[in-house]
Design a protein that fits this description.
Blueprint (H helix, E strand, L loop, with lengths): L1 H17 L5 E3 L14 E2 L2 E2 L7 E4 L7 E8 L8 E10 L4 E2 L16 E2 L21 E10 L12 H9 L2 E11 L4
Antiparallel strand pairs: 1-4, 2-3, 4-7, 5-6, 5-9, 6-8, 9-10
């Protein structure tokens, strides 16, 4: 009898662990490869520079706001390249629509802030790797933050924004898109 009870309990626990929900980031527009739609328009690139639709689910308990970034660790800068930084996204928001990263920010949720990127713009700056440099990784990350508002503004540089994320992150979720330019 003990063996049956232990087997049933073990099965129940294993099922609960297997079905546990995790903080997850998704996109209906991007998969493994970026397209001209996301590619930057400038610096020798001629893309549409449209930020992709992003959605997230199963935010951890205690989340008071979200932030989203796009980072290229393969950029030949010695420190990577920040393509988008948006924060103060209310905890009730679970999606950024396609084009939310436009420079005017009209499609962003109320009170969300886009800070300056390594392009020197306040908004989404799509991929634009050097020609023949190989595929670059573009890491889209959503951060669940314990603060409802970060006390920084749109002129704050990426390193300081990143420090504020780091000190307020409960959990984060990422997806990776690759992009390459060939001659």
């Amino acid at each position: 009898m003990k063996r049956i009870i232990l087997t049933v309990m073990a099965s129940f626990i294993l099922t609960a662990i297997t079905n546990a929900q995790t903080f997850t980031l998704r996109s209906k527009e991007i998969g493994g490869q970026g397209t001209k739609k996301q590619e930057f328009n400038g610096f020798g690139c001629e893309g549409a520079n449209v930020s992709p639709q992003l959605s997230w689910e199963n935010a951890p308990e205690g989340t008071k706001s979200f932030a989203v970034t796009v980072y290229d660790p393969d950029a030949p800068t010695g420190s990577g390249f920040w393509h988008w930084m948006v924060f103060n996204i209310p905890a009730s928001v679970k999606e950024l629509v396609s084009g939310a990263g436009s420079l005017d920010g009209k499609l962003l949720p109320a009170n969300a802030v886009q800070s300056i990127t390594d392009y020197g713009i306040k908004g989404f700056g799509g991929p634009c790797p050097p020609v023949n440099h190989g595929p670059h990784r573009y890491i889209f990350t959503v951060y669940a933050l314990k603060a409802d508002k970060l006390d920084i503004d749109s002129n704050t540089n990426p390193a300081v924004v990143g420090f504020n994320f780091w000190s307020n992150t409960i959990q984060k979720a990422s997806i990776v898109m690759y992009y390459e330019r060939k001659k």
